[in-house]
Amino acid sequence: EAPLPGVPNLALRRERVPNLRGAELLGYTADWKRALSALPEAGLIVVLDADLDADEQAMLERAPGPVIWLGTVLADAWRRADAVLPVTNMAEENGTYVNRDGRLQRYHQAKGPVGMARPAWWAAGEVLLGRGPNPAAPATGEEAFALLGESWPVFAGLSYADLGYTGRVLGSVSAAEVPA
Q: CA of 114: how far to CAs of 8, 92, 117, in Å?
């Protein structure tokens, strides 16, 4: 870690994933080796912008389940995918994330998306809801966040307006509150 002098709690940290805490609140882990070891038994594999080495690509190629690749840039590993969905990066979309201290914050689009890329929440919503136009699919980051709150208690009852410009520190969530 490299602290920024004069600014408490601000540092360049070893873990560079801005939404790791948010993913953990949804039941995911940062255990990459465990995820890779599950590939041979996976019924569906979703890869979100991962940079795979040659061994990991080979494991993905041997995996039995269909592969959906969501990525901000093309990589060799996407060639194994059954579906490739171009997604935007944080600078190209609006959304939310939970920082390492549990502060839920909004972020705002700084530039337009490239080509046909769409936010990952949009692409995932379209895939999960099936073919054709679906009025239940979220059209904005705010709508996607509202849907998140319907399924995950830690986000329930919160809205973009509640977060404002500085965000909100979330309460703790127990394992019993995390859906399977």
A: 36, 8, 6
DSSP 155: G
Task: Say how far apart CA 117 and CA 85 lie, in whole Å.
Answer: 8
The pair of three-digit structure tokens given for residue 62, joined into one six-digit string: 């041997």
Contacts of 125 (CB under 8 A, 6+ apart): 137, 138, 144, 147
Over the stretch 53-109, which tens digit does the pLDDT of each residue have? Answer: 999 999 998 999 899 999 998 877 788 799 899 999 999 999 999 998 899 999 999
Report residue 172's pLDDT band, with 50, 70 and 90 as the boundaries. Answer: low
Q: Note the residue count of the chain.
A: 180
Contacts of 13 (CB under 8 A, 6+ apart): 1, 100
Model pTM?
0.79
Per DSSP, helices labelled H in 26-151 are: 32-37, 54-62, 120-129, 141-151
